[in-house]
Amino acid sequence: MPRFFGTPDGVHVGQQFIDRKDLHEHGVHRPLQAGISGTGKEGADSIVVSGGYVDDEDHGDFIIYTGHGGNDPKTRRQVADQSPTASGNAGLITSRILGLPVRVIRGAHRGSSFAPPYGYQYAGLYLVSDAWAKVGRDGFRIFLFRLDRLPDQAEIWTRRPATSDPAFGTATISRRIRDTALSREVKQMYNFRCQVCGGTVPAFGERLYAEGAHIRALGRPHLGHDSLDNILSLCPNHHAQLDLGGMVILDDFSAATTSDLVPFADLTFASSHRVTLENARYHRHLWLAVA
Amino acid sequence: MPRFFGTPDGVHVGQQFIDRKDLHEHGVHRPLQAGISGTGKEGADSIVVSGGYVDDEDHGDFIIYTGHGGNDPKTRRQVADQSPTASGNAGLITSRILGLPVRVIRGAHRGSSFAPPYGYQYAGLYLVSDAWAKVGRDGFRIFLFRLDRLPDQAEIWTRRPATSDPAFGTATISRRIRDTALSREVKQMYNFRCQVCGGTVPAFGERLYAEGAHIRALGRPHLGHDSLDNILSLCPNHHAQLDLGGMVILDDFSAATTSDLVPFADLTFASSHRVTLENARYHRHLWLAVA
Question: Where is this region: Disordered (chains A, B) (predicted)?
Fold first, then answer.
């Protein structure tokens, strides 16, 4: 049976399930133990949020979810590095890149006011809007995923989730919309050309199109600044490559593929424009968990 | 004074204004007569919606707005073609490409249940999410703009605007999110390579990233189909170029720049994949108003 993405027939958002077997039988979450259902090849189709990791955060409409592995279930402490190729983690990374919808199921636990009082609840479809690595409080590398709930699904919480995160509220909105006044200024400095490849996108009526890319992302959890030293003018291809972790910026301001750290271009800079190494290192760390 | 984009200091969403002079003095809408404030070079910073054109539609959270020119104010009929280089129209096209926020002001008129009972009301910031040409009912070319209200602004209508347009609800959401199951299938047919240039975007962990592009857009007003004959696998650059009217597809399935219709590439097709000429012609017509 091919992996199914989306809400299965006969299942509705908000539906309660007795146990993992019940979830399995309804096709909501197939594995009986793993929290993530998925593989790097296909993507992840569902996750169970059950408060097993100290770095998890549940805000209702969005969730910070810790990847799989290296965790001692008794103490909830990390005892080893997590791997980006472990199937659950690789599945969520693939889901982010492919834009696959992920079913989110909450299990009863104390850590979240959105969790059901008992058993499991299907919370609907979310998108993996961000993925990054960090060295967790126990000194080992973990992977974190941000999932945002897709719009136009049934409201299932009695109170409206706090929207305490306006800066990030735009994260799932298009790159064009996320543009700030400063990013428009940066693009104009370069006449809408890409600082990596020099390319641009012709738009209607002899106009050119480029994108302002924040190296260290705005909003939680990254809390980057909307400042000139954190913005590049990029073509959509290099913007996507930077956002999706296929490219990092090295200390000599060359652009390198993440997998081998081999530089493929030197960034072009206007005389009045610099970005700081701190921002480049922060972005690099997200993917390598090393500076 | 440089053109100001955004809500001026001291003005709040929902604020009432007596007349055009009052709007001018508060920096909400500077021209005293024109409906669109803007130029092709700088973009458009504000528009007044006052029901002057028969093709206008006001849905509260989104608006279909007719461009400037060729209209007889007495009869409200079109008597000439509209021009994409007229400053208001060029301004809104630039705002779309640059992602500039546009102040929307509604004047009292009978055509919209969101219009104020008298004078003018500042409705907040909107983004130009779409722009296209068509031959209107009077036989002349007009330009139409779709504007979508930015999130996280004050609610100013007593009733919640009808969300009668779920397919288009996602138009302002990122291209990644707009992916459908079929567009993922198309991207996989081409191994995440662009049918125009053969390129791809490297993402984290040896993955490749491409985008599924609907030639005739889903949702209103275009009502394209989510079907294999309407989807291309494109790199983000060529997707943006197609979306922003910098590229059209000719009848021999070559890609051409819109301004001169000179082909620069032949689309690559997998043996099991075809797109229909109707969809390519529909897209071309949006920009040229000629088949």
Answer: 67-88
